[in-house]
Amino acid sequence: MLGAVLRHETSDGVISGRIVETEAYLGPHDPASHSAVGRTARTWHMFGPPGTAYVYFIYGMHWCVNAVTGADGYGAAVLIRAVAPLEGIPLMRARRPKARQDRELTNGPGKVCAALGIAREYDGVPLTGASPLTIRAGDTVPDAHVVIGPRIGISKAVEWPLRFRARAG
Question: CA 8 to CA 13: how far, in whole Å?
């Protein structure tokens, strides 16, 4: 997904960013994955078909968006941790007025959702086709420009190398 474009068409305008950081959650056997506890009302769409948005609320204040990647019913997804702003930057700034630089608009999963206007109503929508929230092909990120490391912000399976970041240049 690195290099792909997350795009949201809103009544206020189009907002998009190139995906530059992700974290993988591998399914029910991954103790850090929401799917490890089984299918619940909260995780329902994480078990959807590939290409479905799984949006959840965290820390009582932030929305996070994932792309379901596993087979229908399995519960694997990739968290979009950061994007590089492309379109709708003035709208992103209006939604994230404390950000001092453009990169600070979307350099965290909660910031991505705030800047792009993604919330619970997008949980379960297809990220392809006619949906207002899509992931589209973008520039390929060469393997040599991918930094792989441990996931962050979790307490289980922290050491698993499932965080992927596009290195600049």
Answer: 8
Q: Which residues of 19-31 are buried (b: 16+ CB within 10 A; e: fewer)?
A: bbbbbbbbbbebe
- What domains are defined for the chain? 5-166 (3.10.300.10)
pLDDT category of residue 50 using cuts at 50, 70 and 90: very high
Taking the C-alpha atoms of 166, 103, 153 and 53 in order, what is their torsion angle to the nearest 10 degrees? -80
Taking the CA atoms of 71, 152, 165 and 126 in sequence, report the sign of the dihedral they define. Answer: positive
Residue with tokens 């619940």: 40
**Does the reported pTM lie above 0.70?**
yes
Considering Cα of 58, then 16, then 92, then 19, what sign does the dihedral take? positive
What does 34-67 look like in DSSP terms, one character per residue? GGGG---TTTGGGGS-TTBEEEEEETTTEEEEEE
Query: Can you list the positions of beta strands (E) in the chain?
Result: 5-10, 13-25, 53-58, 62-68, 77-87, 133-136, 146-149, 163-166
Q: Report the C-alpha gap between 169 and 28 in whole angstroms.
A: 36
Question: What are the tens digits of pLDDT across the range 83-105?
Answer: 999 999 999 999 999 999 988 99
Residue showing tokens 């702003």: 85
Measured CA angle at 58 (ends 8, 62), to 5 deg = 45
